[in-house]
Design a protein that fits this description.
By secondary structure, the chain is of the alpha+beta class. It is built from eleven helices and 15 strands. The chain has a seven-stranded antiparallel β-sheet. It has a six-stranded mixed β-sheet with strand order 12-11-8-9-10-15. The chain has a two-stranded antiparallel sheet with strand order 13-14. Helix 1 crosses helix 4 and helix 6 packs across helix 9.
Amino acid sequence: MYYAYKYRLTPSDAHREELDRHRDICRQTYNHFRYRLGEYREENGELPSMTSLRSELPGLKKRWDDLTDVYSKVLQTVVERLFDNLKGLSALKRKGYGVGMLKWKPPREFRSFTYSQSGFKLDKKGGRTLLCLSKLGDIPIRLHREIPDDAKLKQVTLKKEPTDEWYATFGVELDREPPTKPENPERCVGIDVGILKYAHDTDGHAVGSLDLSDERERLEREQRKLSRKEYGSNNYERQRRRVAKCHADLKRKRRDFLHKLSAYYAREYGLVAVEDLNVKGMLESPSNSRNTASAAWRTFLSLLEYKCERNGTHFVAVEPAGTTKECASCGVPTDKPMWVREHSCPSCGFTADRDANAAWNILSRGVKQVGVGHSESTPVETALPVDTSVSAKRVVEAGSPTLKREPSGER
């Protein structure tokens, strides 16, 4: 199993200068080989292989003295990064998207470089944990959670955030197999995501959306201040960092909420069913796209999927069409506008909260899609009497103790 562990670096001013210099050398190397791609294609009528381009590095070092200051594996990963980007463009082209050539990277768009396989290690000196990097030195690191003793460190990526903070992300491989998924899970749950209530599940839990209004107001205030600064001045740069910190604060709080929520469902249930939402298409809609983007549904589903895999939980994404219209009791569809928040079936008389009804339909489709053992009766009948409203039995507000923090090192 492969994991990523992210830690904050606390480099000195001299280390910051060296980190920035190595990052810029990698950026220039990337741009050089991007140019070589086009040059090679003009000469030979086809693109070169990654191996042939990497073989040019030793000769390039003889003409470009700065390259000798950077660890050799780092330069090789720069070429690999170029070809990974090229594969990404090719995949988009196969899907029908109009794509151009790879972009030239300016300094603000090239923020990271990677040590792969060798050239790095963690060490302790003088009571401090240090990240020892070849040709860079020993940089203090805040190891706020321990890496498992049986883990193999495969690589480390150093990244400079827009806030000018440096982080190290370790690629860690553990010699463990994920738990076997149960054939007949005892606890199954369907989750309907929304904006007013972030998640409504079939156990009657309604999770309130995270309130980030104060953080957004602060961000907008700092952005207005930035617009009044002279571009390129020292005041502009200081204000740009303040704006970047506001963005980072929003992102940190949102991801913390999503990590806790996804970990709760992956840990407590044997099967989790969700909607396979086309979030990209929803963002292109002219209405409510800001709230849709802020909800970060795709991020939540991605986190939930890998955590279910890690915990041996069935994860199933079902077709979302009709989950709100169909009756969870009899299956008869009923049209209702968005502002109607209660489901009332004219066929069987079943009434329920609109989101709870959708959650039951999602669970029913998920159980059928996975094919695990389950009762023949409808989910509503197995949980509550037909004449009982499936409204939330209790409301779990964002930040409630119910959403416990994950154990150290498990994100």
